Amino acid sequence: MARQNYTFTSESVSEGHPDKVCDRISDAILDAFLAEEPEARVACETFATTNRVVIGGEVGLSDQAKLAEYMGRIDDITRACIKDIGYEQDKFHWKTCEITNLLHEQSAHIAQGVDAAADKDEGAGDQGIMFGYACNETDALMPAPIQYSHAILRRLAEVRKDGTEPTLGPDAKSQISVVYQDGKPVGVSSIVLSTQHLDENMTSEDVRAVVAPYITETLPEGWITADTAWHVNPTGKFVIGGPDGDAGLTGRKIIVDTYGGAAPHGGGAFSGKDPTKVDRSAAYVARYLAKNVVASGMATRCTLQLSYAIGVAAPLSIYVDTHGTGQVPDAEIEKAIDSIMDLTPRGIRTALSLNKPIYERTAAYGHFGRQPAADGGFSWERTDLVEALKKAV
């Protein structure tokens, strides 16, 4: 039987974290190509350090003239991302940082294979395993520790950007330890927040005075008590932030991007990859399916695994674990999922409308637990499969 009383911790990082700067640039480049051609192929990696951003990988458009044109836009896209995040430091500034674009055309042989498969069920681009997860701990059906770690940093970014708290900088990390009783989150035993600040004279106590009201308003009422331990900028000053303080790289925050360690991860990163890559699209559909299982009332927790082989369209396996909370046998849920959802790469992209420029917004504060948008963003957060699942079991 699963433990009912315990403490679980998750962390998040802000949009100004060096790795998240890189995720943002990679996904902004992806969106630019998808806006031109929904079937564009993009595998974009970004590296950032002091006064320098390096972008590499491969891209493909059917119109080679357009490809050359879009290659020329990479510099502007990159600077726009850095500007919006808020970096205007001496050694990392959106105007002056050096940008090296090493993106190149997709292999002609790969492109030929993609084009040939355009009207049929092309196989997965690589082997791999992908996980989705959902639970009833929050309204978003996400684990509470990661959901609230994200929410704290989103709130601090809002007040930084709107001018309410001009002393805060873009780079930040949060971490909360959530106390569970009888399997339900009931409080926070510790709060860790490290945030860049622009005033060199600020102490850790000064920073806490700025951020504590926003943290308190973000967490559920009663979760913070006199026993909650606070660690705000515990090492002292944090003035030098972002890629100037620590190098960044696309794809290094996969646990932050998903479930904060509360569920397994298949190992593949998301940012910079077009939706033909099952690392991204199958992880999204796995979340979609797990969320609908929980939303349907079939279980209060659901882990779902999919597996793929390169060149093979259909998944090799579908695995469901409801952790002893299921109202329906796990094997029956697996059969229902297989009957109502086309889990080929093309089937996933069609069902979730993934061939759209909707990815830049996913690069910070989690790919899951967000609100579905009218333009198709976060489509994998919909709960529109509930009735179909109920009928299929």
Fold and architecture overview:
The chain is an alpha+beta fold. It has helices spanning 18-36, 64-71, 74-85, 108-116, 144-161, 204-218, 254-257, 278-295, 330-340, 345-352, 386-392; strands spanning 6-13, 41-49, 52-60, 88-89, 92-93, 98-105, 128-135, 168-181, 184-197, 229-232, 248-249, 301-308, 317-321. The longest helix is centred in the first third of the chain and has 19 residues, at 18-36. The model is unreliable at 111-119 (pLDDT under 50).
User: Helices and strands, in N-to-C order?
Assistant: EHEEHHEEEHEHEEHEEHHEEHHH
Main β sheet profile: 4 strands, mixed
Structural class: alpha+beta
Mean pLDDT: 94
Assign an overall shape.
flat
Radius of gyration: 22 Å
Describe the secondary structure blueprint for this structure.
Layout: E1 6-13, H1 18-36, E2 41-49, E3 52-60, H2 64-71, H3 74-85, E4 88-89, E5 92-93, E6 98-105, H4 108-116, E7 128-135, H5 144-161, E8 168-181, E9 184-197, H6 204-218, E10 229-232, E11 248-249, H7 254-257, H8 278-295, E12 301-308, E13 317-321, H9 330-340, H10 345-352, H11 386-392
Short summary:
The protein is α+β, with helices and mostly antiparallel strands and 393 residues long.
Tags for this model:
24% strand; 393 residues; 11 helices; flat; alpha+beta; four-stranded mixed β-sheet; 33% helix
